[in-house]
Design a protein that fits this description.
alpha/beta, 13% strand, globular
């Protein structure tokens, strides 16, 4: 019996550049993580935190691409066997930067992402992480070719300074949520296991022209806090039940 495999695991990733005290997405992911960990019990979970702004993931290079193409030509190579295909120091460097990130994702039952909107889309720091974990075959089962993300829960907490909903002047310019939804569904995550919580109009209190939008901003803030708290409690309960059945 693998007790470690039966222990719920949360990988918590923040991508915003603002410090914790000022970042809306960081405050919301912290709220989710605190509730999830509390409900799982002090000794009943594994938790890993990664701050992509404090410790940026290096951008992929030509060496990464060459290694990825070489591995991909062999079919779906198990992650554990990629090291045997490294030919030189450049290969080793790229794999040393990539392998730990992939391992964190594969070890997690729940993946929590804090994502502010930068210039209508996601932060470059998050894109660098996505590029690394998307190494050819790394997220696939080598035996079946099925996605190794299919049984995980993905929670994406988004924050944006303006409004992008129906009727808003910027309606249709949201390339944050659609991109992440597309990425994870393309990687085999079922729609029912992909959860988005979005808080809008976060700049309403410090941009004078947005002052009339403060009531809507306050409602969005309240709804987002309630959503992450309820979602964390619900997913923690499911993880507890799954862990009990696995023992």
């Amino acid at each position: 019996m693998d007790h470690r495999a039966a222990t719920p695991s949360l990988l918590h990733i923040d991508a915003g550049a603002s410090p914790a005290g000022e970042s809306v997405s960081r405050r919301l992911t912290a709220l989710f993580a605190d509730r999830w960990r509390r409900d799982c019990g002090s000794a009943g979970h594994r938790y890993r935190y990664r701050d992509l702004a404090a410790e940026p993931v290096p951008l992929v290079t030509a060496d990464y691409v060459r290694l990825g193409h070489r591995v991909e030509r062999r079919g779906t190579v198990p992650v554990e066997q990629v090291a045997g295909l490294l030919r030189n120091a450049a290969d080793r460097r790229e794999w040393q930067l990539t392998r730990p990130l992939v391992a964190e994702v594969l070890a997690a039952d729940v993946l929590l992402l804090g994502v502010p909107m930068y210039n209508l889309t996601v932060p470059a720091a998050l894109l660098a992480w996505i590029d690394r974990i998307s190494f050819p075959g790394a997220l696939l089962d080598p035996g079946t070719g099925a996605s190794r993300l299919r049984d995980k829960r993905i929670v994406v907490v988004c924050a944006r300074g303006g409004g992008y909903g129906p009727g808003a002047p910027r309606e249709g310019l949201d390339f944050q949520v659609p991109y992440l939804r597309g990425y994870f569904t393309d990687r085999g995550v079922p729609a029912e296991r992909l959860h988005f919580v979005t808080r809008e109009l976060t700049r309403a209190w410090d941009v004078p022209a947005m002052a009339p939008l403060r009531p809507r901003a306050a409602a969005s803030a309240t709804a987002a806090r309630q959503s992450v708290t309820e979602l964390a409690g619900r997913l923690a309960a499911r993880q507890r039940d799954a862990a009990r059945h696995a023992v």
